[in-house]
């Protein structure tokens, strides 16, 4: 490791990798698309979104805030990020477990888990309706009240979003976010607090998973490592722990 770098390597434990995606020719191994899911999305099915700065990729900021680093970033890659964000700029990095340059401030660092399909039985739901761009103001309002994670004005363009309404009001939703080859992330799972306990999140997760499976793909998702209730729910639906990860942000030094 270069002396100019300080280690913040995350001691994550990877469970057995879901079959069929990490075997290369003659028994060699290749990176699994979920190991660096944002980058696999932006070099794969979501390549049409990709904004490229050297080897650094990102979604348009109104679509998703996450940047995607190479698996082993070099000093030039961090220089690209500094130029992109500017001195004092905040940079969110999903799942990065390597080192950051000396002098870069860590602004948040939350342990997370990645859970992958291990027999999720997707099921359509008659009450779940597709959400459209006209629904975005309501979606943003629901997200602001329930805080399921980043959801921006154009996040809906990343995939299919389904919602459940009562008396015309949007009370629960879930949808698709990252899209590595062969996989789709289920995200923005949220329910209005007044309607929790009715199983709406479960129904929407299974409905979104059904659409993913209909395309011949497999669902996965992320959640906080401390969110034990959600983890138990996801396990009951057929997801299993695949990888310890982190939700991580850094700030560019003012002198960069």
TrEMBL record:
A molecular function GO annotation: acyltransferase activity, transferring groups other than amino-acyl groups
Kindly state which keywords UniProt assigns to this record, in alphabetical order.
Answer: Acyltransferase, Transferase
Coiled-coil residue windows: none
Stretch list, region Disordered: 1-38
Identify the Gene3D superfamilies for this entry. Answer: 3.40.630.30
> Sorted alphabetically, which CDD domains does this protein's record hold?
NAT_SF (cd04301)
InterPro entries recorded: Acyl_CoA_acyltransferase, GCN5-like_dom, GNAT_dom, YpeA/RimI_acetyltransf
Q: Which Pfam families match?
A: FR47
**Domain named N-acetyltransferase: residues:** 126-256
Record-given protein name: GNAT family N-acetyltransferase
Q: Which organism is it from?
A: Streptomyces bauhiniae
Q: What is the lineage of its organism?
A: Bacteria, Bacillati, Actinomycetota, Actinomycetes, Kitasatosporales
């Amino acid at each position: 490791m270069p002396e100019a770098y300080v280690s913040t390597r995350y001691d994550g434990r990877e469970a057995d990798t879901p079959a069929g995606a990490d075997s290369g020719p003659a028994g060699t191994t290749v990176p699994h698309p979920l190991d660096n899911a944002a980058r696999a999305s932006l070099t794969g099915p979501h390549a049409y979104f990709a904004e490229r700065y050297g080897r650094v990729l990102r979604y348009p900021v109104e679509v998703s805030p996450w940047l995607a680093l190479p698996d082993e970033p070099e000093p030039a890659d961090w220089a690209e990020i500094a130029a992109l964000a500017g001195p004092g700029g905040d940079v969110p990095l999903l799942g990065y477990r390597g080192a950051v340059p000396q002098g870069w401030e860590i602004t948040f660092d939350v342990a997370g888990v990645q859970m992958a399909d291990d027999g999720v039985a997707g099921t359509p739901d008659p009450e779940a309706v597709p959400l459209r761009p006209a629904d975005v103001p309501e979606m943003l309002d629901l997200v602001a009240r329930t805080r399921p994670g980043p959801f921006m004005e154009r996040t809906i363009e990343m995939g299919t979003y389904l919602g459940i309404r009562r008396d015309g009001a949007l009370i629960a939703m879930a949808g698709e976010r990252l899209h590595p080859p062969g996989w789709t992330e289920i995200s923005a799972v949220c329910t209005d607090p007044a309607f929790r306990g009715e199983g709406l999140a479960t129904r929407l997760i299974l409905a979104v998973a059904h659409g993913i499976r209909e395309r011949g793909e497999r669902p996965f998702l992320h959640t906080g490592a401390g969110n034990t209730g959600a983890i138990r729910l996801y396990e009951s639906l057929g997801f299993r722990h695949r990888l310890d990860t982190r939700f991580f942000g850094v700030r560019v030094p003012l002198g960069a």
